[in-house]
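Weekly modeling sync, notes
Attendees: S.R. (lead), two postdocs, one rotation student

Agenda item 3: backlog of single-chain predictions. S.R. asked that every request posted to the team notebook include the full sequence so nobody has to chase files. The rotation student volunteered to paste the first one in as an example of the format we agreed on. Action items at the bottom.

Example entry:
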Amino acid sequence: MSNQEPAGKQSPPGRWRLIRDVAVFQVKLFADGFRDLIFSPVSIVLALIDLVTGGSRFYNLLHLGRRTDRWINLFGRYSSTRGLDEAVSRVETMVAEQYRKGGITASARQAVDAALDRVSQTDGHRPEPTDDSDEPSPR
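Predicted structure, as returned to the notebook:
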């Protein structure tokens, strides 16, 4: 997700910015949920081992959790260039290059735009294009 949230009085983001931000947020939610799914039982096992042996495995897991939190950067709190945001940026750059070359992403985008235009016309609401609706831009 972008680290800039739309302000209340600015115009809403274009459809492609919104689609991108939702897709990135869903990937991050999946990564965060998967991490939690793994950490939950592991934390209990490590705490039990630490109770018996007097170790600090549980606290090492907490430290790892903080590191993965930064890597996932679910709500864009951290300004690091590492982690999922870096991977998303690479994918965006590749897609933007393909779009500029007129590759498959350009024809796919035209098809999606046409479908969204039909849906928008059917419900009587057509969003106004904004700066980011013309071309996917790399981060």
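Discussion: group reviewed the output briefly. The two ends are 10 Å apart (CA to CA).
Action items: rotation student to repeat for the remaining queue; S.R. to check formatting next week.
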